[in-house]
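RECORD TYPE: inverse folding
INPUT: structure tokens
STRUCTURE:
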């Protein structure tokens, strides 16, 4: 869990807290949607659809929390779940500034999986209890939505545009959708392709990290 900037778009802030899961999830799923619009032409039965924008990638994962070990107390289970539920609401200091923003979270797994997002839903199922009803084991289904990319960022000290960013490819990504997300123009996909030496724009392995160069006016090719 990290603290966002107050405008909710300029990137990840300082670390606030974290929740460590004792067991690796057995699976997670990633989904992404896009809008395609085909113009109606009287003399054509079918027209080529035009890209209208991509939706944020969404990650769904089930995690397990356990407080049955002697070194773990039920309070640790409650504390972890409270942190997860709190991520679904705005940070109090952003509310007082009239710019309510959720905390950003990073779902990480080892060194290969890092998904910066906001937590949009938490569903908890309690599966084991003490004789007095105190829960000691639970599973939580988390739904995370990727953080929108910042198109332009002004460095307050130098006035220069931000340094190159990176984009982690998820299932459903294309160079056009990445260019639209970063520059607002899907036709600028060649800028991303050239920066990463991509010869085949149709092959983007999920999990690979692409360099997204910063530019004042991305070229429209």
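DESIGNED SEQUENCE:
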């Amino acid at each position: 869990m990290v603290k966002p900037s107050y405008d909710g778009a300029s990137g990840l802030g300082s670390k606030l807290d974290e929740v460590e899961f004792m067991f690796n999830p057995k699976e997670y799923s990633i989904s992404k949607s896009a809008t395609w619009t085909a113009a109606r032409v009287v003399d054509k039965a079918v027209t080529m659809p035009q890209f209208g924008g991509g939706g944020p990638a969404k990650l769904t994962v089930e995690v397990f929390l356990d407080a049955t070990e002697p070194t773990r107390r039920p309070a640790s289970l409650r504390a972890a779940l409270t942190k997860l539920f709190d991520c679904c609401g705005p940070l109090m200091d952003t509310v007082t500034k009239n710019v309510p923003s959720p905390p950003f979270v990073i779902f990480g797994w080892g060194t290969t999986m890092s998904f910066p997002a906001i937590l949009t839903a938490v569903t908890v199922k309690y599966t084991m209890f003490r004789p007095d009803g105190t829960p000691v084991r639970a599973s939580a289904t988390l739904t995370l939505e990727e953080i929108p990319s910042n198109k332009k960022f002004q460095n307050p000290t130098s006035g220069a545009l931000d340094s190159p960013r990176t984009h982690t490819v998820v299932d459903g990504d294309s160079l056009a959708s990445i260019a639209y997300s970063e520059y607002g123009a899907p036709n600028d996909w060649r800028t991303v392709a050239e920066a990463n030496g991509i010869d085949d724009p149709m092959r983007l392995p999920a999990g690979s990290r692409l360099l997204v160069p910063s530019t004042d006016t991305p070229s429209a090719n």
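NOTES: The two ends are 39 Å apart (CA to CA).
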